[in-house]
Amino acid sequence: MKITSLNLAAQWDIVGPHSLRGGYTRAGDTKGNCGLGTVAAAGLLQGNQIGNVVANGGAGSTGASLWQAQYVYSASKRTEMTAGYVRINNDTNANYSLGGATGPRQGDSQNAFALSIKNTF
User: Fold this and answer.
1) For the segment 87-118, what is each residue's pLDDT rounded down to a tens digit?
2) Helix (H, G, I), strand (E, B) or coil at 46
3) In DSSP terms, which residues pair with 6 in a beta bridge?
4) What one-character DSSP code corresponds to residue 47?
């Protein structure tokens, strides 16, 4: 199975210790074949299918897009504080996740706000 993806990211240093970061990531539809064992283990086989089948039965719509934006405050050369937002939009047959205890259902979107402090030694 093969997935092609694209990532674009940028940072804008506004003035002094303030900056903005943004990014866009796109995962395309799955392509190629899955082996019979992989597909059977995932519960995708129906009836008496044998051999290789195209990932998700060739249904397509297995990609996703992710948008993110961050405000960054550089308190010193070693310490930065960030506040950000991220959103992932799954296609109809995709269930990419931002992490956490449970993943989304196929086609569901997720979003999150985050705060962080990073200090390098």
Assistant:
1) 999 988 888 888 877 777 888 889 999 999 99
2) coil
3) 26
4) T
Residue with tokens 């995709």: 94
Are 72 and 49 a contacting pair, CB within 8 Å?
no
- Do 111 and 104 contact (CB within 8 A), yes or no? no
User: Two tokens at 89?
Assistant: 């939009």
Instruction: Give the C-alpha separation, 25 to 102, whole Å.
Output: 22
Say whether pTM exceeds 0.90: no
CA–CA gap between residue 83 and residue 114 (Å, rounded): 6
Q: 72, 80 in Cβ contact below 8 A?
A: yes
Look at the chain and count its residues: 121
Task: Write out the two tokens for 26.
Answer: 């796109």
pLDDT band at 86 (very low <50, low <70, confident <90, very high): very high
Instruction: Tell me the mean pLDDT in the region 55-77.
Output: 84
Work out the number of other CB atoms within 10 angstroms of the CB of residue 61: 15
Residue 96 corresponds to which tokens in the numbers above?
């990419």
Q: Which stretch of DSSP H or E encloses residue 65?
A: strand 64-74
